[in-house]
Amino acid sequence: MVCLKDNHLFPSELAAPFSIGPVPIRNRVILAPMSGVTDLPFRQLALRYGAGLVVTEMVASRELVQDTAESWARLRSAGLKPHMVQLAGREPHWMAEAAKIAADNGADIIDINMGCPAKKVIGGYSGSALMRDPDHALSLIEATVKAVDIPVTLKMRLGWDENSINAPHIARRAEEAGIKLVTIHGRTRMQFYEGRADWDAIRAVRDVVSIPLVANGDVDTPEDAREILRRSGADAVMVGRGCQGRPWHAGVLAGHRHPDRSEIADIALEHYQMMLAFYGEAVGIRHARKHLGWYLDRYAPIVTGAEKAGIVTSKDSREVAALFHAALQTGSDLGQSVQEAA
């Protein structure tokens, strides 16, 4: 396990523990929930390599209550602690019932999604669309909080657009309703992921709540993490896209050392094998493709486009594993690497 400290490089506040209600969190760097990314294998690796907290992919509340296989797959924890489950929905009844199911199946914390900007989510009046109707959003929050005895948290954006920056208003009311932590992504929904996150704007939420505040958006380096805390007044940071292709990255921001090239190759290969085991080989190969691409883009940039395509599109898992691992070990000539690996 890569877990040696090199604390002189990192702000000590990120390594400090905190708590969400009664639940202790070992440090202040949280892996963001990302649909199609932070499945169980990814979360297992992130927690192993030092993330303070990991969050499930968004679980649709109604689908969980209706017992769909995908919802249950997203809910699984495999013993990870703390187990934080993010729920999405637009109706108080389904949110409450889903929260009860999650709590009964090992969830330590429930997170309410009011930040997802995806069209298929807001088209169902969930995610960041809820910010357009704060009264309705509060009805979901109140129902979820009342349904369970575990802490409930809230993740949202600054507002729907630049003319409706209402995160401070919603956050204050959410705290009054019993929310134990709020996370703010420093963009509006209409910005999607364009431009830069506005870290200064998050401070307006800090000014009106006393519960822990987590700042999210464009955190990539230790310097970013330190600066977003300073400018937002937040207690912790959440990292999303910066962890794609490096599930250890949240731990690095919290003060754990970065793996070397050999370790990166081994972790990435293990990640691939974990996905095959979790999904089954045929489905796992498909789900793994984007992850393979991220690893190769970051750590084997000299691999040609044709070679990369051969790795990510092959349906032979053993061939993929050999080519992928060899490319990451050297970061350069793929053909020579495979010969040496053989």
TrEMBL record:
Instruction: State a single Gene Ontology molecular function.
Output: flavin adenine dinucleotide binding
Q: Where does the chain bind FMN?
A: 86, 155, 185, 240-241
**Top EC class per UniProt?**
oxidoreductase
Name the record gives this protein? tRNA-dihydrouridine synthase
Among Pfam families, the record links this protein to: Dus
EC number, as in UniProt: 1.3.1.-
Provide the cofactor list for this protein: FMN
Catalytic-site annotation from UniProt: 116 (proton donor)
Q: Which family does it belong to?
A: Belongs to the dus family.
Report domain DUS-like FMN-binding positions.
30-298
Q: Which NCBIfam families does the record associate with it?
A: nifR3_yhdG
- Enzymatic reactions: a 5,6-dihydrouridine in tRNA + NAD(+) = a uridine in tRNA + NADH + H(+); a 5,6-dihydrouridine in tRNA + NADP(+) = a uridine in tRNA + NADPH + H(+)
Looking up CDD domains in the UniProt record yields: DUS_like_FMN
* Record's keyword terms, sorted: Flavoprotein, FMN, NADP, Nucleotide-binding, Oxidoreductase, RNA-binding, tRNA processing, tRNA-binding
Q: Which SUPFAM superfamilies does the record match to this protein?
A: FMN-linked oxidoreductases
Q: Which Gene3D superfamilies match?
A: Aldolase class I, Putative flavin oxidoreducatase, domain 2
The role this protein plays is: Catalyzes the synthesis of 5,6-dihydrouridine (D), a modified base found in the D-loop of most tRNAs, via the reduction of the C5-C6 double bond in target uridines.
PANTHER family given for it?
Answer: TRNA-DIHYDROURIDINE(47) SYNTHASE [NAD(P)(+)]-LIKE (PTHR45846)
Question: Which InterPro entries does the entry mention?
Answer: Aldolase_TIM, DUS-like_FMN-bd, DUS_fam, DusB-like, tRNA-dHydroUridine_Synthase_C, tRNA_hU_synthase_CS
